[in-house]
Specification:
The protein is built from 5 helices and 4 strands. With 133 residues, it is mainly alpha-helical. Helix 1 runs parallel beside helix 4 and helix 3 packs across helix 4. The longest helix has 13 residues. The radius of gyration is 15 Å and the shape is globular.
């Protein structure tokens, strides 16, 4: 049995280190098997999410996504960080737990939504590209 993390009494997915030697087929490389959203579609969605938080800068978050993944929905990864926003699964699940939403880890739209929420709630420092700037 794989151990899980708990956030506010909510069970979430195991961390990468907890999956060593276990079946990790659920950590699929790409959420989209047939068609991927275009960069324009992703940028439009980013703009709509950022618009919910007037204090945020679209260009700042866009620059972080370019740094993290070049807006690729399934960029090369290091088996820890994945997706367009290069989330660690534990961090993604921690944030979605605080958001009280069930979202798909490898869905680029969900990753953008969570990233924007994180920036609006003081968690910018969770991205390596943010800490470099």
């Amino acid at each position: 049995m794989i151990a899980t993390l708990a956030v506010a009494n909510t069970k979430i997915a195991p961390t990468i280190s907890e999956t060593k030697g276990k079946d990790t087929s659920w950590l699929k490389t790409s959420f989209y098997q047939n068609s991927k959203p275009s960069i324009k579609e992703l940028k439009d969605y980013l703009a709509s999410e950022v618009a919910k938080y007037p204090e945020l800068s679209y260009s700042e978050i866009e620059a972080i996504i370019y740094c993290e993944s070049s807006f690729q929905v399934d960029p090369p990864h290091n088996n820890i960080c994945r997706g367009i926003a290069q989330f660690k699964i534990g961090t993604f699940n921690w944030f979605t737990g605080m958001m009280n939403e069930k979202l798909e880890f490898m869905d680029p739209y969900d990753q953008i939504k969570v990233m924007v929420w994180a920036f609006a709630n003081g968690y910018k420092n969770h991205w390596e590209c943010y800490t470099k700037n």
